Amino acid sequence: MYIDVIMEIIKGIGRFFLNPLLYIGILFAILIGYQRVKSERKSFKTRIFWGWSETILMVKEGWLPGVIISAISLIVGLTVPIQFIVISAVVGVILIAVFYYHAASAVYPLGIAFVILWYTYIADGSWHFLKWDVTSHSMHVGMLSTIPILIGLVLVAEGALVVKNAAKLASPKILKSERGLPSAIYLAKRLWMLPIFFVIPSGAIHEYVPYWPQFTLGSNTFSLILVPFVIGFQQRSRKLLPVHFYPQVGKTIEILGLLVLIEGIIAYFFPIMGVAAVFVGIIGRIFISILYSLSERHGTYAVTPKDNGVMVAGVLPDSPAAAMGIQVGECIRKVNGIPVSNEEELYEALQINAAHCRLEVVDQDGEVRLRQHVIYRHDHYRIGLLVVR
Q: Does 283 share its domain with 348?
C-alpha cells in the first residue's frame, strides 16, 4: 500500500508540469512584473526589482505551504470529488485572467465550486461541464466538512504568505496628494502557486481517464492528483508603510482562515455548519479587502516630502543604500555632515566625498541613526536611493 502511495506521488509530480494552470499562472506573473517595472520607470526612471521577480517568488514562496496542506490532506484523508477540483480550477483561471487580484483570493474559486456542487446536491440536479458529469452524487454529506476544512487551510496559507512576503515587492508610485505634494503609495500585486495533492475517489476520475493510477485503502480505492493551485493578492497602502500594513492584512486573513477551519471541523458533527463556514469565508474575505482598501484610501501619506530632510520612497537591492540598512519611510537629514532638504542637495552632498558616504537618518520612530558605506566603482551612482522629490 505504501509503495502504491509513493508511486502515486511521483506520477502526480510529473503530471503537475502538464497542467495548463501552471503556465497560466507563470504567464500572468510575468505580466505583473512587466506592469510593475513599467510603473516604477515612470515614477523613478528605473526599476527596483527584476521583472521576473514575481514569477520566481511565485513558486519559491508557495511550495512549502502547498507541501504542508498536502501532508494534512493525505494524513487526515480530506477526500474531494474531481468535479470540485475542475470547477474551482476553471473559476481560478477566470479570476487570474481578469488581472484584478482583489478577487483572486483562495476562498473564491473553492467557495464557488462548493456552492455549485452543494446546490446541485440539494436540488438533486444533473448537468454537464466540459467532459465531466456533475450530479447530486458528485457531492455527499461528508464534503460539508472536508471542503470547508480545505478552504480554511488554504486561507491560513494565504494569510501567512501575505504576512511574510507581500511587502517584499510592494511597488512605490509617486502621486500628488490632496495638498498637491508628491507622495508615495505602494501596491502589492502577487501570485503564489501552491502545489497541492488532492485525494479523490478513483471511480470519479477513472471513468474519464482509465489509465490514471490508483491505490486502495481498506475496501475503498482512491487516486491522487497534484494541482497547481494559484492564489492572487492585491492591496494598496499609503497611510501605513508596507512593512506594517501588509502583515496586518495577512494576520486578519489568517484569523478568518482559522475561523473557517474550526467551523469545518464542527461540521463533521453538524454538517450544516459546513455551508455556514464557506459563506463566512467568502463574505469575510470580501470584507477584509474592502475594509483595508477604505482604511488606506483616506488620511495622510506615510511617505511625503519633509522640510527637514529627504524622504526615502524605495531602496534598490544590492546597492550602497541597502548595505547601510536604509528603510522605506526613513528621512535622510544629513549627507557627509551637510544638512539636505531635497534631492538636488542630497546628491550634491554625496559628491563631496565620492569614495565614502555617511548618512544621518531619522527612522520611523523618530530616532537618529548614523550609517556609512564605502562607495565602489561598480555601485549605483545614486547609491540606490529612490526619494520623494
A: no
Q: Which three-class secondary structure state does DSSP give residue 214?
A: coil
Domain interval for residue 93: 2-297
State the Cα–Cα distance between residues 159 and 169, nearest whole angstrom: 16
Residue 343 exposed, middle or buried by CB count within 10 Å (0-12, 13-18, 19+): middle
Tens digits of residue pLDDT in 344-356:
888 888 888 767 8
Please give the biggest Cα pair distance in the chain.
Answer: 81
Query: Are 253 and 361 members of one domain?
Result: no
Write the pLDDT tens digit of every residue in 28-69: 999 999 999 999 999 888 999 999 999 999 999 999 999 999
Both 292 and 314 in one domain: the answer is: no
Using DSSP's 3-state secondary structure scheme, residue 11 falls into helix
Distance CA 198, CA 150 (A): 10
Task: Convert the pLDDT of each residue in 100-148 to its tens digit.
Answer: 999 999 899 999 999 998 888 888 777 777 676 777 777 777 788 999 9
Coil/strand/helix, residue 285: helix
Whether 50 and 157 map to the same domain: the answer is yes
Residues counted in the chain = 389
Strands 132-135 and 126-129, how do they pair?
antiparallel
CB count in 10 Å sphere of residue 351 = 9
Q: How far apart are CA 54 and CA 61, in angstroms?
A: 10
* Number of domains comprising the chain: 2
pLDDT computed for residue 205 by the predictor: 42
One domain for residues 284 and 382: no
Amino acid in position 163: V
Could you tell me if 259 and 124 lie in one domain?
yes
